[in-house]
Specification:
Shape: globular
Radius of gyration: 19 Å
Distance between the termini: 57 Å
Number of helices: 6
CATH architecture: 3-Layer(aba) Sandwich
Strand order of the largest sheet: 1-7-6-5-4-2-3
Bound molecules: pyridoxal-5'-phosphate
Structural class: alpha/beta
Order of helices and strands: HHEHEHEHEHEEE
Length: about 220
């Protein structure tokens, strides 16, 4: 087979051999249902818990805060709609930017059609949001700020540490779509006050169909 040279690793990456090797037993040998009570299932439950610990250690989270989803879009939907529906009684305002991935923009559009108010922040010529504009748009109804860590088309990296500080100061949930960042950038969810974070294995040599979603359990508003 002729080898192709594939440069669009922002779209996806190949699965590294060591990843395939680590995964192989769970497809061919230990394929039990992790929710079952017998050995072959319980072993897999332990493997899932181990994977949770590994993901948590990468972003300085706690294993119980890691949820596995089927795709990055599912993680974004779950984060944004989850916070919105759970906090509807406390406020109906969400702040995002105009250059988010469709999974974020379309989640926000759906919420708008259901009565939520969404502010779409402008970005400058480098794709950066203005932190003063972000803070000035927070009202007593604001429940969520959702700003991506790194942009999938122009590569802009937002100042998520400062965004996290603003969210903390105003007691607002902070979600970041870090699908393009994890694997390339070190992110510490504690240091950056991130409440919810979406990441995606296939962007850094993992398999497609395995994404994670980090959700802290503390109540904010
Ligand atoms: C920034 C960003 N968010 C979310 C997604 C959605 O991921 P998925 O295709 O796994 O649903 C992508 C995919 O390219 C992305 O680049």
């Amino acid at each position: 087979m002729e080898r192709i040279r594939y440069f669009d690793h922002a779209a996806t990456t190949y699965v590294k051999e060591e990843v395939l090797e680590a995964m192989f037993p769970y497809f061919a040998l230990n394929y039990g249902n992790p929710s079952s009570i017998y050995g072959i299932g319980r072993q897999n439950k332990m493997a899932i818990e181990q994977a949770r610990k590994v993901v948590a250690s990468v972003i300085n989270s706690k294993p119980k805060e890691i949820y596995f989803t089927g795709c990055g879009s599912e993680s974004d939907n779950l984060a944004i709609k989850g916070v919105a529906y759970a906090n509807r009684e406390k406020g109906n305002h969400i702040i995002t930017s105009k250059i988010e991935h469709h999974a974020v923009i379309n989640s926000c559009k759906t919420l708008e059609s259901e009565g939520f108010r969404v502010t779409y922040l402008n970005v400058d010529k480098y794709g950066k949001i203005d932190l003063n504009e972000l803070e000035n748009n927070i009202t007593k109804d604001t429940i969520l700020i959702t700003i991506m860590t790194a942009n999938n088309e122009i590569g802009t990296i937002q100042d998520i540490e400062k965004i996290g500080q603003i969210a903390k100061k105003h007691n607002v949930y902070f979600h970041t779509d870090a699908v393009q960042a994890i694997g390339n950038l070190k992110i510490d969810v504690e240091k950056c006050n991130i409440d919810l974070l979406s990441l995606s294995a296939h962007k850094f040599y993992g398999p497609k169909g395995v994404r994670s979603f980090i959700c802290k359990t503390r109540n904010k508003i």
